[in-house]
Queue: 4 jobs
Job 1
Amino acid sequence: MATTLKQTCSRIFLVCVIAVAIQVMFFSPLPDIPQPSSSLPFPSNSKIQEVIKLGQGFLKQPEAVAVDKTGVLYTATRDGWIKKLFRNGTWEDWWKIDDTDGLLGLTATATGGVIVCDADKVMFADDVIESSDGTLYFSIASTKFGLHDWSLDVVEAIPHGQLLKYRCLKYWLKGDLKGQIEIFIDNLPGGPDNINLPPDGSFWIALIEIFPSKMRFLYTSRASRYLIGAFPKLSQWVIAPHKKAMVVNVGSDGKIVRGFDDPTGKVMGSVTSALEFEGHLYLGTLYNDFIGKLPLPT
Ligand SMILES: *[C@@H]1O[C@H](CO)[C@@H](O)[C@H](O)[C@H]1NC(C)=O
């Protein structure tokens, strides 16, 4: 009797294991990926911990900041608002877009308008910029997975991001190299998010630590990637944006000039954008409820 029961149980167990294995091996959408390369060294300086907090409590996860010709700052918040900060320090609920949590990058145009990316309307539109001839350029963070499934895109780690990945690319809009794409900077010490252009011709790039180093096994172990591909919900708790905040200033030659961080996200975490304006950096975030203002050392 006991032996038959034991045999039945072990058969059921075996069938379950085979069923899970089949699910994992054959219904997983993940292709093979190259191994991650080591990133550029970046010494921590905790400078972001010195930020002045603007609009604290009033701004739900303000991802990005834009400034218009008159010096008014704009940010889009995760409760669907564009809010503005006058020079006198007063905040205003300026424009309610929608009951969306998909508002990401924004820009102030030469004609005095504000354009904001709504990742729920345009599939994962992440950031927007206006060129000198008035053309708008959007970056799409992922063409395959939407905003709420972005952790899967990270696991997959093949370049579905059209403009941005752990490297930044340069796309020539005009001149002899028109239409060509080259690597602008590679092996960044984090996942690049929004890029802003200060007046000196360099670039401010916010880096998110999407992938804490203790999660590296996900890249090296094929089984764990298959498991996440087969059961996508797992990725939501395996991969969350780590709180570490980091921004780097990259020269037009693609070299890091300087950078600031908050290694633990103690004061400000998951910084998604850095806008330079009148000697200060204005930092947007996925994590906090304020904009960080950091005086730039001269
Ligand atoms: C700040 O400026 C705005 C726009 O000019 C104005 O509406 C607001 O009342 C001002 N706030 C204060 C406290 O002066």
Job 2
Amino acid sequence: MSNHIRTKKLITISMMVLIAATLLVAGTASAQQAAMRDNLPAIDTSLYAAEPIPLRVDQCGQCHTRHFRDLKLSGGKHQFDCRECHEVFHAYNPQRNNYAEIMPLCATCHGQPHGDKHIECINCHENPHAPKRVPMTHRLEGICSDCHGPEATELQKFPSKHTEQACNSCHHSRHGYIPVCAECHEPHFATQAEATCMQCHPVHQPRTIALAADVDLKTCDACHSDVYATWDGTPSKHGEVGCAECHTEHGLIPACSNCHETPASHNKKLMAMFPKCLDCHLDVHDLPVK
Ligand code: HEC
Ligand code: HEC
Ligand code: HEC
Ligand code: HEC
Ligand code: HEC
Ligand code: HEC
Ligand code: HEC
Ligand code: HEC
Ligand code: HEC
Ligand code: HEC
Ligand code: HEC
Ligand code: HEC
């Protein structure tokens, strides 16, 4: 590079620095001017006269709509002030990674209501703002009997096809769900009401069938149509006696003596020859009558 060119370049650089410096000074001056607003705020000490009123719960809810709604609809016994649990809030700092530290602990207020086997509360009570909404997850499967001994024992003690069903095949979807029989079964006759099923079939021991005296006899007709037809057409007074008044349990055969003394008119000798009442009276569902 020649000397001449080098000198020329130096001059150019010096000039640029000078221009830049001038511009910088001018810029700072105009920034100072812009900071001077025309209308500066007026001082109002009354704004600071009162102490701040703590937020009401519904005000927390203005921002935390989901939490408020959960508590409102499903909060149950947790429907008290947020701050009873959240003694510290708006204090989460990702840099300090203090989330767990500021969140409320169940143990502040609760012991171990289900014993020392089930102490990870939040595993099951996933949402403390809707504490009773426990989802039916694999977590609950197979441990029902820890908390529901009586039902599990009942199913074992009275073996039936329901004993072979997993609890959550019926109690599916969510904890506490109660199924209707119609999810899996047809009624015995078309108009049979769902509400009647459990009068005859206690669901955890469905084969224990106690028959109330006033059961709808169309049920019996569904499986014993021959007997039903005989009984329905009989001119004898047994036609006024309901099936379940005699058959108080399913399959039970009553003794005549449950309801009848041997009539005085009945000759002892004849009775000795025909020890069974039905030897003469033939068909209990259709007694021969004059
Ligand atoms: C019975 C105690 C209890 C009450 C009452 C309660 N919370 Fe919570 N809340 C908790 C617990 C425990 C957690 C931590 C949940 C977790 O770790 O998953 C939590 C978490 C939160 C979170 C952060 C986690 C998230 O779900 O976004 C917010 C926000 C929150 N609560 C707001 C509220 C508001 C607002 C109210 C009142 C309207 C309220 N809470 C009432 C116990 C409570
Ligand atoms: C003006 C809106 C607003 C109000 C009112 C408000 N919060 Fe919050 N809150 C937020 C925001 C934004 C966050 C951070 C984002 C998030 O977690 O949803 C937050 C986070 C939280 C958290 C979790 C994180 C933390 O730092 O604690 C809790 C708990 C909480 N709020 C409780 C409350 C309670 C209790 C009230 C009422 C006393 C309340 N908030 C009122 C906006 C609000
Ligand atoms: C600030 C205290 C407090 C905290 C923290 C708290 N609870 Fe509660 N909880 C209560 C009170 C009070 C009740 C009603 C007590 C009673 O009836 O025995 C209750 C009731 C419940 C119920 C029954 C709800 C109902 O409607 O019947 C469940 C479930 C429950 N709590 C679970 C939890 C779990 C899980 C946690 C932690 C995530 C927790 N609680 C944290 C105070 C608290
Ligand atoms: C394995 C799951 C599971 C765990 C873990 C668990 N719970 Fe529960 N808890 C339940 C179920 C299910 C219910 C019944 C909810 C309902 O009424 O539908 C319940 C009910 C409750 C009730 C109401 C009591 C009642 O008799 O109605 C309280 C209070 C409670 N739990 C607190 C806790 C606390 C505190 C912990 C932790 C120490 C905890 N739970 C751990 C499943 C669990
Ligand atoms: C950690 C304890 C716990 C476990 C595990 C548990 N439950 Fe419960 N369950 C409860 C409590 C507490 C209640 C409410 C009080 C009561 O009715 O006994 C309840 C109530 C119920 C109810 C009655 C709801 C109503 O409307 O009466 C059903 C049904 C039920 N549980 C089924 C189950 C089934 C099925 C399982 C297993 C998949 C299960 N539970 C596991 C504690 C538990
Ligand atoms: C074939 C379906 C079915 C099976 C299997 C079943 N349940 Fe039930 N369960 C029901 C029905 C229906 C009810 C409602 C009974 C009522 O209203 O009297 C019920 C009621 C309950 C209740 C509420 C309290 C009560 O007795 O009324 C509990 C708790 C319960 N079941 C637990 C269990 C457990 C635990 C198992 C497994 C060991 C189980 N159930 C198996 C259908 C079933
Ligand atoms: C989730 C399905 C389901 C529900 C809900 C259900 N059951 Fe069943 N039930 C079964 C199955 C499966 C069998 C066995 C059927 C078979 O082997 O043909 C059965 C068998 C029965 C039996 C015969 C029992 C035996 O050992 O012979 C009776 C009675 C019965 N159910 C009544 C009811 C009644 C009443 C209800 C309602 C309270 C009900 N069930 C609800 C699934 C269910
Ligand atoms: C008046 C009593 C009564 C009523 C009400 C009743 N059942 Fe039955 N159910 C019986 C008898 C009795 C049997 C036969 C049991 C046997 O074979 O040992 C039976 C059998 C069953 C069986 C076993 C399968 C079969 O068909 O043999 C199922 C399933 C059943 N009932 C479901 C229901 C349902 C669902 C309802 C309600 C819609 C219902 N029952 C109402 C008395 C009743
Ligand atoms: C779902 C079909 C079904 C229904 C409904 C039904 N039964 Fe039966 N019943 C049977 C079956 C199957 C037997 C034979 C198997 C047995 O002994 O359990 C039987 C047996 C009987 C027996 C005993 C028969 C003997 O030879 O010992 C009597 C009595 C009886 N049922 C009466 C009734 C009455 C009364 C009703 C109405 C409340 C009724 N049944 C409803 C299916 C049914
Ligand atoms: C007055 C009492 C009485 C009434 C009412 C009655 N039964 Fe019977 N039932 C008996 C007696 C007793 C026997 C046994 C008969 C025998 O040993 O031959 C019997 C037998 C049966 C048997 C088994 C033998 C057979 O004939 O198949 C069935 C099924 C039966 N009854 C169903 C019914 C039905 C269904 C009704 C209503 C429509 C009904 N019973 C009404 C007393 C009664
Ligand atoms: C649940 C009770 C009950 C049982 C069990 C019972 N009966 Fe009757 N029986 C009656 C009633 C009620 C009448 C009507 C009585 C009246 O109106 O005076 C009756 C009437 C009769 C009559 C008169 C019939 C008529 O139409 O005048 C004869 C005969 C009779 N029963 C025989 C028997 C025999 C035989 C048995 C056993 C196989 C038997 N009963 C079982 C309740 C029963
Ligand atoms: C040897 C045949 C015979 C035997 C056995 C018999 N009865 Fe009779 N019973 C009759 C005759 C015949 C009548 C009258 C029929 C009529 O008047 O229609 C009668 C009538 C009745 C009457 C209705 C009239 C009255 O007197 O109240 C009853 C009730 C009765 N018997 C019950 C029984 C009982 C219960 C037994 C079993 C302990 C029995 N009978 C055994 C033949 C017999």
Job 3
Amino acid sequence: MAQEALYGRARPKTLAKLIGQDHISNALAQAISGDRLSHAYLLVGTRGTGKTSTARLLAKAMNCDTVRDAQKSGRPLDKKEIPCNKCDACRNFNASPDNVEFDAASNRSVEDVTRMLSTAYLAPLVSHTKTFIIDEIHMLSTEAINSILKLIEEPPSNVAFFLATTEVNKVPITIRSRCQVLNFRLIPQTTIAPYLLRIARHLEVDLHEDAAKKIARLAEGSMRDALTYFDQCYSSGGKEISLVDVDEMLGLISDEKLDKIISAVNAHDRRATADAITVAFNSGVAPNSIAESLITRLRDLEFAKLNRGEKSFAGVDTLVDALRKSISEMYGSGIPDIILEMTLLKLAAPVQMSAQLPTVATDRPLSANLDAGKKIFYDVLNNFGRQDDDINHLLKKAVVTNFDGKTLTLGFKSATLANMFGNNRQVEFEQQAAQAAGHPIKISVVVDKNLSASILDQVSEPDRTALADAMNAFGASDATKI
Ligand SMILES: [Zn+2]
């Protein structure tokens, strides 16, 4: 496979070329220089972080003539010459009968594995040290594990074991305690992206920087995945790979399409949300992949805001939670597209404004008492008004005319409305207002036939849109008609 080919070609040839695992390559270089290598290593880490590559480098270095000469003479070795790749032992390493490699995850029979392990007791045929590299050690049968245990407890001379695993908790403690453990870290995106750009330059491919970053992010710490994605784009594309190419070739949805969905939902615009979802579906990306990409995109946008020292945008937690829930609902469902569509449309419903309105109101300092009064009023309108149609109806006809910090004055155009409010709802409103303000609030009601200002007219420009949405939430599509 072409993907394997690039990963294979890009395997590090020396410890100096091991990417993103300096803590391991430095420690190993010192151990090799001091001739202090162990006869059993347990290499632990996520797939594609360099475990097998490191095992091969070590196996090769143990037999490298240059390394062994340096060890004998006490000459310190540079990471670049471990192994040298020039001596006979290095050049013949790949064909050496003394290096045994197998993947315990493949369906090898117990007999097969036992037979391979039994050769550990025979002297190396052509090399100095016989090496065994076993991937996914935790998948071995108990019988095979016991054979290995015996071998590392009383090792025959000139034998070394490199046991790799992605699930160290499944490796028996007896094995773990007898091996030198090397913990491989996830490789940071900031290491993967420049590495991809370097490889691309070497291959004379114009890989765009944002495309490299996207691949690095998708790889989630695995260099193998990064190279596989890059190879996929490289083999199906041309000499130039852009962000759009990466999205298309890997069957991903573009950030632009995701941003349209996010801003439509955030603006509580159901029409725009429906349109943006349709566009996303038309790109042929699976609904669960769209939902996952939305979560990733939201996380990226949040991090970007954090880095700029900005506040996170309202409702992001709700959105992520809902998307996460929808992904599990989609699993095994015959209607994943409808599940995602309904999730997003529900989030785009104006009713979500309850979470956002106070945020908008507190974004700017309350410049005057009247502003503080209005904020309390909107909070009550948002909570109390939602629970009760009657009070909602009444409050939509009220205007905050004054607030001195203790008494909130509400103006009504007619005495009938003022009486309805005063007789039936004033006490409850005061309780709600006290809750919103955090201290007792008295309500004073005034009647003024000349009151023409609707709620919208009282609000400063930045709040107007948010308020209009809040009014929509209560069924007042045109707040100025109140
Ligand atoms: Zn060599």
Job 4
Amino acid sequence: MASTFLSPYYFLFCLLLLFSTASPSKTSSLTANLSPTAQAEMLIKGLNLHPKEAVNIRTRDKDSSSLASDGKIVERRFELPVLGDSGSSVQDLGHHAGYYPLPHSHAARMFYFFFDSRNSANDPVVIWLTGGPGCSGSLALFYENGPFHIANNLSLVWNDYGWDQASNLIFVDQPTGTGFSYSTDERDIRHDEQGVSNDLYDFLQAFFAAHPQLVKNDFYITGESYAGHYIPAFAARVQQGNKAKEGIHINLKGFAIGNGLTNPEIQYEAYTDYALNMKLITESDHDNINTMLPECKQGIKQCATKGGDACELALIDCNSIFNEIRDITGNINYYDIRKSCEGPLCYDFSNVETLLNQKKVRDALGVADIEFVSCSSTVYEAMRQDWMKNLAVGIPALLEDGLKVLIYAGEYDLLCNWLGNSRWVNAMRWSGQKRFGTSPTVPFVVAGAKAGLMKSYGPLTFLKVHNAGHMVPMDQPKAALQMLKSWMAGKAAMAGADSETDT
Ligand SMILES: *[C@@H]1O[C@H](CO)[C@@H](O)[C@H](O)[C@H]1NC(C)=O
């Protein structure tokens, strides 16, 4: 009944993550199909990405001593020609790229970009995490919310709606092996949120030690897709470090997840309902496919109690639900159901690889001869026992700590669709659950137009973004920037204000 093969269309972030185990049939074994690595590689090519290596693990003799740093962060300013006007009032606009040797690793170095706010040095510090798992932060930087985008001719052009218009903005390549982040020891590959969040916490400590003037600023964690897993774990790790006075106090104020995968049990159940609502499948398809749900849910429960292999089995069982929908919907772009995939490609992100392989760009960034692995199939595969974990369970404690939580979703994404996200947000048990549930849904207004629908109570906000797919800042850059600004300023500002970015 279900297909046994994932086509390249499904790759991108969430996808990448969700669907590497393509066999939907319970009777087939893991090895009866392409290996997860081969599958991930095929899917990466479907995004028109062609990383030379499956993962950024270098042999020792190839390791460049020029990047040696005695355990310290090494950051450099870079200047790349950017067309247009930054619109900045800040005199000394700093763009930085750096490497940080991760202390709780054998030999890993985390690469990051850091952009001074175009508005004010006092703006919050915001870190962005791209999903995959295994895709570089540079995909978001150059195609979503970075200070500049790549034109077709590879020129950089200022992005009027870059999130550096309102924040001091960090993009990291993580987990280790992704983007320009690398190691000489394959034991540094991460397999779970504990490993991921410890590395991110260590990075933050080093980052703020290197930028002491930013320690007092507000700090926010943001990201997309599989970052729906990373972010709650990372936020909890920061709170834990703060409470134990482990190092520099991180002034964490909240986190935002865009089109994330956070609570798989609820989100997998929502696939058929979303697909039916959007007329992608019929009522009878819906009911047929839903007969697979009990097994998927049971698998997720087993994963929660047993972990390990049980989590891989749950992934297989649950993916059969998605594969059934895919069989019916054909070449629709699952990141944005308004679009179809042309040939093998749904999106074309190849320019980021071309750009980051140019010698002048690599020299400017100080990456020497380190490979750029746009998306790592090895990192993706290494996280497969993490995929079916429910990361929503940690969020109530973070809300009780007073952190602001924003869950947003572009309405035309099937993969990490708004319906599943809305459901888990409503189902989450916390002290404000009832009042959140009965809060009115109100328009999110940008420049006088309705840009979405939102609901909030206390520190928790859910926002459905209109006319957007999986990558909200790419599809609705102006609304996404205002969302960030208003949310950071407080929920009252978010509900009403539409004047700030309206110029
Ligand atoms: C490259 O594209 C940008 C944006 O479309 C344009 O402004 C610029 O003139 C182009 N540069 C060249 C050399 O064609």
